């Protein structure tokens, strides 16, 4: 058990990089959308092209893209 934990401890960066090889492919909207639909947000995000993986994606451009929609 301790050998496994030492392996994870010393290889954590490599493990995270391997987990980050697939782009973000789904998102969840929380709360009530009164003026903007989920389809509007989805279309806006699709215009950005392929996103990076969970660890490598900078969320600021995503936030800016969504905030650029009317009534957000």
From TrEMBL:
Primary location class:
membrane
A single Gene Ontology CC term: membrane
What are the boundaries of the signal sequence? none
Q: Where in the cell is it found?
A: Membrane
Query: Which keywords are on file for this protein?
Result: Cell cycle, Cell division, Cell membrane, Membrane, Transmembrane, Transmembrane helix
Q: List, in alphabetical order, the GO biological process terms annotated in this UniProt record.
A: cell septum assembly
Give all residue intervals belonging to the POTRA domain.
22-72
Q: Which residues form a coiled coil?
A: none
Give the matching PANTHER family.
Answer: CELL DIVISION PROTEIN FTSQ
Name of the protein in its database record? Membrane anchored protein involved in growth of wall at septum
Tell me which species this is from.
Haemophilus influenzae
Gene expressing this chain? ftsQ_1
């Amino acid at each position: 058990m301790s050998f496994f934990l030492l392996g994870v401890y010393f290889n954590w960066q490599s493990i995270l990089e391997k987990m980050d090889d697939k782009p973000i492919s789904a998102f969840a909207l929380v709360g009530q959308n009164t003026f903007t639909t989920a389809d509007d947000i989805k279309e806006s995000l699709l215009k950005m092209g392929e996103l990076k993986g969970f660890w490598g994606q900078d969320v600021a451009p995503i936030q800016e893209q969504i905030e650029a929609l009317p009534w957000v």
